[in-house]
Amino acid sequence: MAKHTVAGAKRCLVIGAGGFLGSSLRRDLKSDHALELVAFDSNGVDLRKPLQVKEALASINPDIIINVGGISSPASDDVFNLYQVNAFGHLHLLQAASVLERKPKVILASSAQLYGPDLVTKAEEQAALNPVSHYGLSKMLAEKYCELFADGVQTVTARIYNAIGRGQSSNFLLPKVVAAFKRRAPTLEVGSLNVERDYVDTRDLTAMWRLVALSDKSPTVVNFSNGEAVSLQHILFRLEEITGHHLELLSKSSNFRKNDIPYQCGDNSAIRNLGYVRRYSLDETLTWMLDE
Prior knowledge:
By secondary structure, the protein is an alpha/beta fold. It contains nine helices and twelve strands. Strands 2-1-3-4-5-10 form a six-stranded parallel beta sheet, sandwiched between helices. A two-stranded parallel sheet has the order 6-9. A two-stranded parallel sheet has the order 7-12. The chain starts with 9 loop residues before the first strand and ends with a helix.
């Protein structure tokens, strides 16, 4: 086992290191003296294979595990694989962690999708859950597994709102819109125009991950949000101001996503109580993405 590069640094395993969230974690924490990062992605260890997971954790012996290795798209059509990776994959991780001599803290990347479409105000972590997609259900099942292992392993569930930043697939709405502005397209076909989202810069997300990882008093469930819902029309206006380009969005029924949630905003009191302070404004994030 490799020695800590800094005395007292906690050995932090990032699962899903090759994905959007995992890549941002590695980039933003690589020089952090409190954490020694170890990472693997789905090409190295398959969460669906419990023996692989058990052997990997035994060889790494981490203090902290951050699991961002799930399937992130609510529109995924491969329902079987969705549950295999997002739910059973996390179960295998918890099982492997529970038999280590030194039990690690296990942090799950869950989703604000669990709150469902009914809330029209900021969602608190104690709000009733109402997932309306297989993606949401897979994450809720993973959260339930965390509860089952809570007596033996310290678990934290991070319900992530809309992460945005460099490297994000244009299959997601906001990077798709940013890409259209970058190529100065006159029009762009999207789904619903009436959506409001709580956007979080991946660099601010990293600050949240770090706070939860190193805190001795982190709650078992915490919203990773900025507590601010921003409309698509406002995003469009800000991008036009920044670029000087006008883009017309065309709403097409073929682009509507089944069971889409029109409004999402999270109460971020819990993460603020751990010391979180937002660093990046929406304009700063959009400019960062445009300059990629």
